[in-house]
Amino acid sequence: MPNTGIVKYHVKLKFDVDGLVEKADIIGAIFGQTEGLLGPEMNLNELQKVSKVGRIEVNVDTKSNSARGDALIPMSTDISTAALIAAAIESIDKVGPFQAKFFLVGIDDIRAIKKKIIVDRAKKIVQEWATKTISEGEEMLKDVYDASKPGRLTTFGKAQLACGVGVFDSDWIILVEGRADVINLLRAGYDNSIAIEGAKIDETILKLTDGKKTVAFIDGDRAGDLILKELQGLVNIDKVYRAPPGREVEECTPLEVSEILKDVEQFIKDRYSESHSPIPSNVQQIRNSHRSEHGLKLVNGQEPGFDYQKDNGNINSIKNSHQRQESSNLEGLRTTPSSTALSSSTGNPISKEDEEVISTVKKVFQEINETLEAMVFDKSMKKIVKIPIPEILKKISNLKDGNLLVLDGIVTPRLVEAANKSGIKYIIGHRTSNLKKPNPSVRVQTFSDIGLISQSIRNS
Description:
This protein is an alpha/beta fold. It is built from 14 helices and 18 strands. 28% of the residues are buried.
């Protein structure tokens, strides 16, 4: 094979001929009977001219009135072309005037040995590097590696729509068609996308995009046209991006996704500047945790439960702020109006039991937040049971000795009624809903009342 070609595959064949033939006959049959069969660009002569096929090697063994042997064809085409040519040679049924049969033995990737050498060498390089690297170098590598990690996949709303964690904090949203599209955008560094999951737009999408800049990134096919038409009828789309014609978003490489969306941040910033509203950068801000479905605000701009020891610049002010907040919240447990944070208020001084309740909630907040679970504690603040939110009404009705209920969810009138029947005196959750008539036997608070989240959402 000419020096300009790099052999990738060896196509190995065997043949049987019912007559005495020579090498030239076999080679002539291979070239002659495959010519024009797969089109002019696939002719062996043409492929040899462009160094895609090398010199065909043939071995012939003649016995009495028959011949058999093998042929080896070196090729530098792709595997699909090599397979097509092998199949074409297998179709040869005559060599000269004699009946013949060719069959494929196999296609060997001759780069496999080279690959093994490369892998073995790479392992050795890594081992040498590991023995010489100092701790500072390891930290630098870890920082670079963490920066390259894709964002975390999660779900949103009752419909459990696939999304990146950035949708909870970002001021702009990317709407895509399916879960695979969300994953592909995470690989490209965009963690603020959400899947609409079908042509029927869920009401969750309408709520999420309300008041936010919205970008649609749709497949480049006919189905994408239909989904886009449905979207534009229900959602205020600020800008539309499409995958290349005939392709889907999930089929695009991260590089292609970045290229298509390269101007999206500038576009959003321009839109925000028109309305005199600042926009925080979202791309590449991969979060480790997200807020609840209702978008609760963070304490001092940090995730709930952040590490105070790591915030060297603000640690003193944060501690002082939290000390003041705890003091005010202890008083709030007694004085908060029943229509908002506290469903019943006696007006009495704070009891030891109230302080124990607040202390217990603060201890378990990190454990229960974003788990969609609830915990029940007895009067000694010992945990009795941990319950998934969907089963809470059924489970607490059968509980005894319960005193405190802490849940990663919404406090509803039905929950207060069930808790009252089982003897529970305190309920702490993310927010309340429709608590118009306070129950004098059950005291209701939110995590924001205790200072764990800066603001909760209430429905009167």
